[in-house]
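Quick one, tokens below:
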């Protein structure tokens, strides 16, 4: 009996030694989850700064005599793809574009300078003519001190862009010839909305523009005045408009006509989850439907291409959503 009791006590001690406390299990699981999250965050941060795709779109127009190849760059946010953006420049060159179009947020509001953007423009200007319109980050970068100081910073930015080799467009347009075609290229930062107060209130009632003021959205009518003048031509109309929500969500197609509109800003939803899809858009909120791609006006006369952008701003990387360089074939009918 004594031998059996000793055996039982020894077995009990061994069992107690093997018992794992619930707290230990919780801490272990938490550590594994945190390690996995850190690995995912690290991978996608690396991907954000090292990989992008080339998306190709095609459209036709009876306003063209010959085909045009255009490349759109948007929302780079000072990200460098390769040393001195070698990978990005090489990809643009491989597209053999007739024109290069930059649709804003090429650097970020909290950058100390925009030197890398100017250097990129200089390199790309050897490939094709460049047109540059502003995004919210360029506008915010210029906001400093008094109105006169902000205006001067904006003038300096536009002058620097021009000096680097691009045509800077902010509520302005240029009539030019691209690949033998008469083209009117315009650029603006704004919502491209119809300045109607009832319409504005309707948008707010539907959950849009909740934190916006009338003057901020409609820019004292400057958007409408510019777009009305811009569309008055027989040339092919190419509009660079960083924020495409007016056209994609709020029927601005009904009021402003352009054969091709190029936009960005949404970053493709930033994070794309399996099954659930894109996570967030500034105007549509969580799990939006419109984060990138080609859109047509109801009458089929206007095309909008919403770029998913190349880079990212802030601590949250693009997840399952690599940057996008856009190549557009505009074919003559």
């Amino acid at each position: 009996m004594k031998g059996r009791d000793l055996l039982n006590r020894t077995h009990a001690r061994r069992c107690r030694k093997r018992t794992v406390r619930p707290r230990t299990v919780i801490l272990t699981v938490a550590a594994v989850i945190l390690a996995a999250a850190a690995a995912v965050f690290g991978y996608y941060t690396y991907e954000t700064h090292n990989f992008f795709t080339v998306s190709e779109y095609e459209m036709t127009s009876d306003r063209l005599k010959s085909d045009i190849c255009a490349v759109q760059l948007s929302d780079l946010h000072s990200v460098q793809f390769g040393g001195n953006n070698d990978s990005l420049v090489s990809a643009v060159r491989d597209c053999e574009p007739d024109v290069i179009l930059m649709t804003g947020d090429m650097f970020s509001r909290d950058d100390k300078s925009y030197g890398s953007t100017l250097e990129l423009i200089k390199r790309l200007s050897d490939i094709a003519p460049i047109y540059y319109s502003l995004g919210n980050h360029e506008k915010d970068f210029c906001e400093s001190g008094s109105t006169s100081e902000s205006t001067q910073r904006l003038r300096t930015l536009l002058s620097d862009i021009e000096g680097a080799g691009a045509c800077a467009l902010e509520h302005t347009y240029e009539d030019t010839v691209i690949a033998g075609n008469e083209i009117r290229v315009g650029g603006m930062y704004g919502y491209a909305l119809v300045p109607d107060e009832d319409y504005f209130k309707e948008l707010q009632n539907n959950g849009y523009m909740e934190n916006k003021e009338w003057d901020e959205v409609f820019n004292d009518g400057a958007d409408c005045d510019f777009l009305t003048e811009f569309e008055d031509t027989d040339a092919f109309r190419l509009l660079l408009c960083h924020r495409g929500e007016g056209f994609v969500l709020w029927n601005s197609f009904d009021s402003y006509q352009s054969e091709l509109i190029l936009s960005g800003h949404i970053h493709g939803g930033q994070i794309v989850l399996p099954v659930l899809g894109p996570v967030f858009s500034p105007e549509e909120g969580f799990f939006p439907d419109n984060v990138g791609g080609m859109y047509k006006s109801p009458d089929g006369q206007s095309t909008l291409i919403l770029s998913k952008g190349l880079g990212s701003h802030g601590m949250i990387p693009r997840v399952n959503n690599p940057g996008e360089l856009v190549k557009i074939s505009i074919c003559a009918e």
